[in-house]
Fold this protein.
Amino acid sequence: MVMKPKRNFASAHARETTTSTPPFSSRVAAWVDQLPSPPQVAVHSTDGTPLVELILLEPAISKSSTIKKQGEPQSHPHTTLDTNQRSSQYQRAEEEMEASSNGHAMATRGRPSPAEAVLQPQVTSPQLKGAPIPRLHPSASSGNSASTAQSSSRSPTKSRSRSPTKTNTSHGSRVIGKKEQLAFMEPGVFFDDIQGIRDPSVPKSVSNFWKDYIMLAKDEQKVVPEELKASYQLDTPMKTKMQIPESSYGPNLYGAQDVMNIHALVDGIVKRAASHRKKIHEPQWVSTVVGPLIAVLETLPSMMPVLSTRSIESLNISSVSIQPRELCPSSPDEVFALADKKIDHALAIELARDELRRLQTGGSKYRVGGEPSINQTYACAFKFMFVNFEVKVDDRDPLIQLGIWIASELEKRFREGYPMDVPIPAVAIYGDDWHLWIAYATKVPAKQRRKDGKAYQVQFLGPIIMGNTYGHAAVYKIFHVLKAVIQWGLEVYQRDYVEKVVARYKKK
């Protein structure tokens, strides 16, 4: 922009004091002369009432803004810029926008486009609501959605660092930006409130997981071991002001050695979360706040059931892809891209050496893909991952990646003939807040299926509030709920799923 010479306001003020004050419209016109072009400005005055209209041209969007003096009637007559002149300006702006539309669409991938607004209404599971599966075709209902998506613009939000992209997409389709859009994939993925777990159609294995393990753990308030009470007394003369409320203390469920390890870890997590919260970087948040909490679980014997002969291991799978790609949910009308969604972490059941050898030598008994694997990836081919974690620190929803990842696992189960009725816990982490969801497969009657549709769909129930990383008691609550999930994994999941899958592969 060409800089204009600075006006001598002192001399201008001196001249104005010796002469009569010019009309308002004249002063605005003089100010307009100082402006670069665009904006284009027209000044009009009727009956002494001023009116200024500015036509602002931006690279991507053309806007008009009318500034009126307070008290001016809404029906005040005025003239504007010549219509042909304005149209030619808009045309030039739109030509520039069209030339850069491809790059702009990629930059705004994280938010839904106006065309995606067609898919925004909540889509709930017909199995829980008693209605047939919606036969919706986004391509037909959204019109020319592909071109509209390219011209969408991202609203201004606080800039935050994101993790490297974990999505590989096919060319020419829109990227899923809302979890509700997963209902239009095949198999469909639906999200309902946890209250739906009382529905008679919910599998018994799912309702038992909720009733026997999660329901009591989520409501428990006495989650901080009593012997740590002195550690959380603030440094006051009378030692009476407590950092943790009295109602949060209860019996020690972790053992003498484990409780001190957890105590040190909780202190570190709360401090690191407080230091990183003002300017969140997702990779740093995962590695310093979320990762240590998940990794320590495999080192705590008290987290395991007393009679269990197995143990667990924590897996960092942020670089692990869904393999083979045919396991990924697909878009029937190719409206959405075939997404390869990865997640951050998982907990898996450790296998005995004999069990691992049987799986590795299964050979031709595997029906999917070119390599032996009991799950939806070759990188962790023989890991029974019984709980999945995904982290987001911005406005993106971790349930999108969890939904696609778990749908791929259920597709693997379906094709291999593994048990389909065993639920899959999923933990969606929104910055500080941890939410537990229960995922499982439900049958779809043949009359209710889409054309060439799957015989099942994926249902998520939640959220179940686990806790957060704002304070010590809330972090202990996360440990308490995870302890219940781990006990279910080592008691029920290993019996009803791990042992049955291993038994399919005879030892050579």
Notes: The longest strand covers residues 456-468. The two ends are 78 Å apart (CA to CA).
